[in-house]
């Protein structure tokens, strides 16, 4: 089991997934809306979650009906956690990782990494940039 999977389990408040298939099952099983509170507890702002995961009004509606997040929203939560976890590993602290994710990046056409996490393609660009930074190819 990877350190990233242990962190995913910690961040979601569930047993750490052992494999990517376990992560897929979490997404397909749809996460509870309470995971949004956990994201905020990790330093993400409500507006950032609105933009990348689920708008506040939609979340309120889901909570009132005791519904879970959709698979797409659950996938966006995992994408956000995975990316923040990678940035935290590279920058050494959550505060520094969040600061980097909120800062416009020249390699991302002056967009912030957080703003790109709403799509799979955008998150791949962010993850690739983090790999390059980690390998010393880009600072």
TrEMBL record:
Protein name, per record: Putative toxin-antitoxin system antitoxin component (TIGR02293 family)
Signal peptide positions (record): none
GO molecular function term, any single one: DNA binding
InterPro entries assigned to the protein according to its UniProt record, in alphabetical order: Antitox_Xre (IPR011979), Xre-like_HTH (IPR046847), Xre/MbcA/ParS-like_toxin-bd (IPR024467)
Residues covered by the Antitoxin Xre-like helix-turn-helix domain: 23-82
Sequence ranges assigned to domain Antitoxin Xre/MbcA/ParS-like toxin-binding in this UniProt record: 86-136
């Amino acid at each position: 089991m990877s350190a990233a999977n242990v962190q995913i389990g910690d961040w979601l408040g569930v047993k750490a997934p052992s494999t990517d298939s376990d992560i897929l099952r979490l997404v397909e099983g749809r996460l509870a809306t309470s995971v949004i509170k956990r994201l905020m507890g990790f330093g993400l702002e409500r507006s950032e979650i609105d933009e990348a995961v689920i708008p506040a009004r939609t979340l309120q509606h889901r909570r009132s009906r005791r519904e879970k997040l959709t698979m797409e929203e659950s996938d966006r939560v995992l994408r956000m956690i995975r990316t923040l976890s990678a940035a935290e590993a590279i920058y050494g602290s959550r505060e520094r990782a969040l600061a980097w994710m909120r800062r416009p990046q020249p390699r991302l056409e002056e967009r912030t990494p957080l703003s790109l996490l709403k799509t799979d393609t955008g998150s791949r660009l962010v993850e690739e940039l983090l790999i390059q930074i980690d390998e010393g190819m880009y600072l």
